[in-house]
Amino acid sequence: MAAHPEKALRIHLGLALAEALCVTAFVVELRRAVSGNTLSWAYVFEWPILGAYGVYVWWKLRRPEDTRAVSEPTGEETVALDEYNRYLAEVHDRSTPTDE
After folding, report:
1. pLDDT for residue 2
2. Strand ranges (DSSP E) for the chain?
3. Rounded CA gap, 28 and 82, in Å?
4. HSE toward the beta carbon, residue 41, CA cutoff 13 A
5. Is residue 99 part of a domain?
């Protein structure tokens, strides 16, 4: 199942913008580092890492959300969920002010 076309377009454009920013910043910092700015060497390594992270996020976002397998609850889990829902209903009833 593919992502909605508009959502996919935004995801791809976001990646393109992020990568353009990272490449540009890498080139700027590399030139500064080579010209003698020693602090820029840290950024020379930081920008490619951020670019790689952008690709990772893009890869995760473009995958359909329903690819994870969800198993049906077991009998024990169903009983525990029902008890918890009853508890929440009781708490809600106690905390709701009455109109008297």
Report:
1. 53
2. none
3. 60
4. 5
5. no
Find the Cα–Cα–Cα–Cα dihedral 18, 23, 26, 27, rounded to 10°: -150
Q: Map residue 60 onto helix, strand or coil.
A: helix
Show the domain range for 32: 1-64
**CA gap 27, 34 in Å, rounded:** 11
- Our count of domains for the chain comes to 1
Buried b (16+ CB within 10 A) or exposed e, 12-35: eeebeebbeebeebbeebeebbee
Low-confidence ranges of the chain (pLDDT < 70): 1-3, 64-69, 98-100
Tokens 């995760």 correspond to 60
**Residue showing tokens 């020693």:** 38
The amino acid sitting at 1 is M
The answer as to whether 80 is a domain residue is: no
Q: Is the dihedral of CA 45, 47, 49, 51 positive or negative?
A: negative
* Global confidence as pTM: 0.59
